[in-house]
TrEMBL record:
Membrane-spanning parts: none
Superkingdom of the source species: Bacteria
Organism: Streptosporangium subroseum
Lineage: Bacteria, Bacillati, Actinomycetota, Actinomycetes, Streptosporangiales
Localization: Periplasm
Family label: Belongs to the bacterial solute-binding protein SsuA/TauA family.
GO CC terms in record: periplasmic space
Signal sequence range: 1-26
Name of the molecule in the record: ABC-type nitrate/sulfonate/bicarbonate transport system, substrate-binding protein
The keyword Transferase is annotated on this UniProt entry: no
Keywords for this protein: Signal
Length: 304
C-alpha cells in the first residue's frame, strides 16, 4: 500500500468517495489530504517533495511552469495530469451588508495571491461590472478559499471568489453571490498536478481512481456515499449537502468525467491571465511550443 500526500485547498469529496467506496484500496493507495494555506506554499511543498501531487487551480500550474515572476521566483517542470472539476460553483461573493457594486468601491478584494489562480476570475467578474481591482478596491492576499470565506463572513474583506462548499457556507452566513465564473466562458476550476520526476506507477493509479470516481459521480452514482462524505468533510447542513452533490454532476460547473482539459477552457485560462497580468504577455506563444503541460498518459483511452 502506497501512502500519498495530496495538497488541496478545500477538502476533496472525490478522494473522500474513492476512499469510502474502496477504490483507493483496490488501487493500492491511501491518501492524506494536506490543506494549503496559499498557493505559493502549496507549490513550494510540491517541489520540495513534501507533497506527491496537488489538486489546485490550473492557472497556478501555468504560473509556476511558464511565468518567471511567479510568487516563487522560478519556473519548474510541472504537469497537469487530469482535470478534476469546472469550478464547483465558483462565484463572486460580497460580505454581509454589501449588496451593491458602489459599496465595493474603497473596499477590500480578498484573493489567494494577487497574481495567480482564482484572483483573475475575481478581476474579470468585477471588471465586467465596472470595478477595477487595485484601483476601485484594494487587493489583499488572504490565502486559501476556506480562509477567504471566513474573512468575508467576518467582514475582513468586502468581496472575494468562493467555491467547493465554501460558497454554500458563505450564503448561510449572509454573504451575497453576485455572479458565477461560468459567465466568463468554459472553465476548469481544479486539476491534479505533479512534477515530471514522480513515479509513473502510482501516478497512473491515482489518475485512474480520480477519473473513474469523478465519472461515476458525474453520472449520478454514489449519491448516498457522496452525501455522507460531503457532510463529513464540508460541515454542511442537509439542504446544502444535497445542493453540493447535485452540483458534482452539473455539466457546466461540476466534475470533469473524462479527466481531460478541453482546449476552450485552456483558452479561457490563458485569456484571463494575459488580460490581468502583464508578466504573462508571452504565455499563448509559449503554450504553442510546449508539449509537456498536459500529461495525458494515464487518462482513459490515452495512446500507449
Amino acid at each position: 500500500m502506497r501512502t500519498l500526500r495530496i495538497g488541496t485547498f478545500s477538502p476533496s469529496v472525490v478522494l473522500g468517495v474513492a476512499a469510502a467506496t474502496g477504490a483507493l484500496d483496490a488501487a493500492g493507495l491511501t491518501i492524506t489530504q494536506v490543506p494549503a494555506r496559499n498557493s505559493p506554499e502549496q507549490f513550494a511543498a510540491l517541489l520540495a517533495g513534501e507533497l506527491d501531487a496537488v489538486i489546485t487551480s490550473p492557472d497556478n500550474v501555468l504560473a509556476y511552469r511558464f511565468v518567471a515572476d511567479n510568487p516563487l521566483g522560478h519556473t519548474s517542470d510541472l504537469r497537469i495530469l487530469a482535470a478534476v472539476d469546472r469550478g464547483l460553483g465558483l462565484s463572486l461573493f460580497t460580505a454581509p451588508g454589501v449588496e451593491d457594486l458602489d459599496s465595493l468601491r474603497g473596499g477590500v478584494l480578498g484573493v489567494d495571491v494577487p497574481t495567480s489562480g482564482f484572483a483573475f476570475v475575481a478581476y474579470e467578474l468585477l471588471a465586467r461590472r465596472g470595478i477595477k481591482a487595485g484601483i476601485d478596491c484594494e487587493v489583499a492576499a488572504l490565502g486559501s478559499t476556506p480562509r477567504r470565506a471566513e474573512a468575508l463572513a467576518g467582514g475582513r474583506c468586502a468581496v472575494t471568489v468562493l467555491n467547493a462548499g465554501n460558497d454554500l457556507r458563505a450564503e448561510r452566513a449572509g454573504c451575497h453571490r453576485l455572479s458565477r465564473a461560468k459567465e466568463i466562458g468554459p472553465y476548469v476550476g481544479t486539476v491534479l498536478a505533479s512534477t515530471a520526476e514522480r513515479q509513473e506507477e502510482w501516478l497512473a493509479a491515482l489518475v485512474g481512481v480520480i477519473v473513474d470516481t469523478s465519472g461515476r459521480l458525474a453520472s449520478g452514482q454514489f449519491r448516498e456515499c457522496a452525501s455522507s462524505v460531503t457532510a463529513r468533510l464540508m460541515g454542511l447542513g442537509d439542504d446544502d449537502v444535497q445542493r453540493y452533490v447535485e452540483l458534482l454532476a452539473d455539466p457546466d460547473e461540476g466534475l470533469v468525467a473524462d479527466g481531460r482539459v478541453d482546449r476552450e477552457s485552456l483558452d479561457t485560462l490563458v485569456t484571463l491571465r494575459t488580460r490581468h497580468h502583464a508578466g504573462s504577455a508571452g504565455l499563448a506563444d509559449a503554450l504553442r511550443h510546449d508539449t509537456g503541460l498536459l500529461d495525458e498518459r494515464f487518462l482513459p483511452g490515452a495512446a500507449p
